[in-house]
């Protein structure tokens, strides 16, 4: 029931180390695949409606807003993950399916490229983590978290400033600087996968409660969606350039 991860120590102390049914590695993996299946199914439904000529703008907006709200709840109250993680997968799937259909209407083959690149990055980092080519040290974790927080703040500023007609320089441009920014964001998003792998592995060793399997799957799904969307944006910039 021991772990060197300070974040997991806090989780274990708060959630209770000796749950009657502790979190397991296979349990977290199974929950992750189930959530991914739900997301893909919902995304496929949104894509189908778009292909039928239906306007999926409302579905996209509803999925994005609903998914964001549910994600906040699960993040702050992990015990809700068994119920709300599947809900998040459905809502986020609606958004991902709609936005994918939009990009597909602009650039032929871009969605398949983004899916393949996301899957390739996921597998490559998983292999690198399992073979210990990448080690999650305290400095590594702090660096990734700090970079992720900076990106989130930048996106929030971009969203708020957009209401006043102000744009953040280079963030949405297809210029060389804009492309480099997107590449950097993709790298940070990818490195978050390593933190997710570390959480799943060490969480099972630390004896976290059973509901944390759903929380781990939810966290991994959030990262995968973010990585996919950033790769999609990067490919779109490269097509425009």
Automatic annotation (TrEMBL):
It comes from the Bacteria. The chain crosses the membrane at residues 33-50, 56-76, 83-104, 110-130, 142-165, 177-195, 215-236. InterPro entries: BaxI_1-like. The keyword Transmembrane helix applies. Pfam families: BaxI_1. Keywords: Membrane, Transmembrane, Transmembrane helix. The keyword Oxidoreductase does not apply. This is Bax inhibitor-1/YccA family protein. It comes from Metabacillus idriensis. The lineage of its organism: Bacteria, Bacillati, Bacillota, Bacilli, Bacillales.
């Amino acid at each position: 029931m021991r772990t060197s991860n300070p974040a997991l120590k806090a989780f274990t102390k708060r959630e209770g180390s000796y749950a009657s049914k502790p979190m397991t590695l296979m349990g977290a993996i199974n929950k992750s695949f189930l959530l991914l299946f739900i997301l893909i199914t919902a995304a496929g439904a949104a894509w189908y409606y778009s292909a039928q000529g239906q306007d999926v703008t409302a579905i996209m907006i509803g999925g994005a807003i609903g998914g964001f709200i549910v994600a906040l709840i699960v993040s702050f109250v992990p015990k809700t993950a068994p119920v709300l993680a599947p809900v998040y997968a459905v809502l986020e799937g609606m958004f991902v399916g709609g936005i994918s259909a939009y990009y597909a209407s602009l650039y032929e083959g871009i969605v398949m490229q983004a899916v393949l690149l996301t899957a390739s990055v996921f597998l490559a980092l998983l292999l690198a983590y399992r073979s210990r080519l990448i080690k999650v040290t305290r400095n590594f974790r702090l660096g990734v978290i700090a970079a992720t927080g900076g990106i989130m703040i930048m996106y929030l500023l971009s969203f708020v400033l957009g209401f006043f007609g102000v744009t953040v320089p280079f963030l949405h441009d297809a210029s060389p600087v804009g492309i480099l920014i997107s590449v950097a964001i993709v790298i940070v998003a990818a490195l978050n996968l390593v933190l997710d792998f570390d959480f799943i592995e060490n969480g099972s060793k630390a004896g976290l409660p059973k509901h944390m399997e759903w929380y781990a799957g939810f966290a991994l799904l959030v990262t995968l969606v973010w990585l996919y969307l950033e790769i999609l944006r990067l490919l779109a910039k490269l097509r425009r350039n």
